[in-house]
C-alpha cells in the first residue's frame, strides 16, 4: 500500500528539491511545489510530470498541487555613456557573457529603446518573447544570457518614434519581466541623459553604474555628464572603462592611438572613481560582434580584455 515515504520517493524522481508539505489522505495527495526560476512552460511540464508519477501509485486517486515561487533578489548594473558610438552595447554584451562564465546568474536588458542592438549581438534576432500573465519572458540564446529588447518587439528596421513617457513604460516592461533565477541584470543604457535614463534611475534604482568612454576629449566631456547624472540620483559609480584604446596594425603590429590614449583612466583618477580597464580598437571585435559571436565567449586576446574588466566588476558587486 502506498504511504508518504513511497510518495516522496516518487516525487524525488521528477521534482527533487522542489516539493514540501506532502500529505496523503483518502486517496488524495497534496503538496507544495516550488517553481521559482521556471517559466510558464516548464512550470506546466513539472506539474504534469508530478501528477502523472503520483497517479501511477496504488491508491492515489487525486493530486492537489500548490505552486509557489520564492522572490529572487535581483540587482541592476547600468552600463552608460554620455554619447553614442563609444561601443557601450558591445561592451555590455561581453560583460554579461564574462560574468556568466564566472558562474553568475546574469541577464541583459537592452534599455536603448530607440536603437536596440542586443538581439544582433546575442544572435537572437527575429525572436519574440512569450508572455506569462502580464510579464514578458526573456528571450533565450546560445550564450544562455536571458535578454529582452525593443528589438524583439518591433519589426526589423522599424523606427520607434515614441515620446518619453511611452518609452519609459516600455522600459518598465522589459525590466519587470519574468527573469526567473537571474540575480544580476546588465542594463545597456541609451546614450545621453534623457527621459529613459531618468525613468530607469528613479523607478528601478541600479546598484551601480559602469561608464564607457573612448579616450577622446569630446567623449570624456559627455561621459562626465553621465557620471554627474548618476551621482545626482545617488547611484554609485562602479568605475570607468576606456574603449577603442589603441589600434594594432594587422600588417606591422605597430600600435597607434587614433582616439588618443589614457584619457578615460586620467579622467577617472581626477574624479576619484575606479578605472576598470581598457578594450583595444580591434577589427576582430567588430567582426565578431556583427556576426553575433561576442569575443568574451572565446579564448581570444580580445575576449580576455572583457574578462579582466568583468572580474573587477564582480569584485565590486561582491563587496557592496
Descriptive notes:
The strands form three sheets. Strands 4, 5, 8, 9, 10, 11, 12 and 13 form an eight-stranded mixed beta sheet that branches. The mean pLDDT is 87. Helix 1 (4-15) runs antiparallel to helix 2 (40-55) and helix 3 (88-101) crosses helix 10 (301-318). The chain has 320 residues and is an alpha/beta fold. Helices cover 37% and strands 23% of the residues.
The portion of residues forming beta strands comes to 15-25%
**Poorly predicted ranges (pLDDT <50, ≥5 residues)?**
none
Whole-angstrom Rg: 23 Å
Spatial gap, N to C terminus: 55 Å
The number of helical elements comes to 10
Q: Please tell me what the overall shape is.
A: elongated
Provide the residue-averaged pLDDT: 87
Structural class: alpha/beta
Q: Note the quaternary state here.
A: single chain
Helix content: 25-40%
Largest sheet: 8 strands, mixed
Number of E-type strands? 13
What is the H/E order?
Answer: HEEHEEHEHEEEHEHEHEEHEHH
